């Protein structure tokens, strides 16, 4: 049975340690073979745009762009619909592989059988 993990990150550059921790956990879970779904909400929404993860810096942390790339390669990354709308981010602007979806899909993923969920 595949282990499933849903990570919801609300922090961005406003709380860099919390943000980096969420991306690190998601990428580590992917490397461990888990089925990972990373949700970008709040200030982390900006990382759905090209170049934004590359501009994030936190001493002694793995590059956010590398962590996001790992999740995009082997998991799912979702940008919150309302968060995207508040920031005027459209589907044509996001990184390849990022989907935009709302609370109904988040709840469906979290309530699925054998799922662990973390919120940062």
Give an account of the 3D structure.
- The protein has about 120 residues and is an alpha/beta fold.
- The protein has one domain (about 5-120): DsrEFH-like (Hypothetical Protein Ychn, Chain: A).
- Helices cover about 35% and strands about 20% of the residues.
- It contains four helices and five strands.
- The chain has helices spanning about 15-30, 65-75, 80-85, 105-110, and strands spanning about 5-10, 35-40, 75-80, 100, 115-120.
- Strands 4-3-2-1-5 form a five-stranded parallel sheet, with helices on both faces.
- Helix 1 (about 15-30) runs parallel beside helix 2.
- The longest helix has 16 residues, at about 15-30.
- The two termini are about 25 Å apart.
Show unreliable segments: none
Quickly give the CATH architecture: 3-Layer(aba) Sandwich
Tally of contiguous helical segments: 4
Structural Rg? 13 Å
Termini, distance in Å?
26 Å
The CATH class is identified as Alpha Beta
How much of the polypeptide forms β-strand, as a percent range?
Answer: 15-25%
The CATH topology is given as: Hypothetical Protein Ychn, Chain: A
Give the integer mean of the pLDDT values: 96
Summarize this entry quickly.
This protein has 120 residues and is of the alpha/beta class. The protein contains 4 helices and 5 strands; from the N terminus they run βαβαβαβαβ.
Keywords:
alpha/beta; about 35% helix; globular; Hypothetical Protein Ychn, Chain: A; five-stranded parallel beta sheet; 4 helices; 5 strands; about 120 residues
């Amino acid at each position: 049975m595949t282990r499933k993990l849903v990570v919801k990150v609300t922090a961005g550059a406003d709380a860099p340690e919390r943000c980096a921790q969420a991306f690190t956990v998601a990428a580590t879970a992917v490397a461990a073979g888990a089925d990972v779904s990373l949700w970008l909400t709040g200030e982390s929404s900006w990382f759905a745009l090209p170049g934004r993860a590359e501009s994030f810096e936190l001493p002694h942390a793995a590059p956010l762009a590398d962590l996001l790339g790992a999740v995009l390669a082997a998991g799912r990354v979702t940008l919150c619909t309302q968060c995207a709308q508040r920031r005027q981010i459209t589907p044509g602007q996001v990184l390849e592989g990022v989907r935009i979806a709302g609370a109904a899909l988040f709840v469906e993923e979290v309530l699925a059988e054998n799922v662990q969920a973390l919120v940062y």
